[in-house]
Amino acid sequence: VEEFVVDHENKIVSTPAYMSANRITEVEAGITKLVDEVLKLI
Known about the structure:
By secondary structure, the protein is an alpha+beta fold. The chain has one domain (5-41). Helix content is 33%, strand content 14%. It has one helix and two strands, in the order ββα. A two-stranded antiparallel sheet has the order 1-2. The model has no long low-confidence stretch (mean pLDDT 88).
């Protein structure tokens, strides 16, 4: 749940977040990394 993927060509960032987590606390790391990457793209 901590992983994310980036498509730099199309500027798409994705994480499985809630699809793979059992608890909301498990998604925080992946979402944080996703947001950090989105900020790099803009």
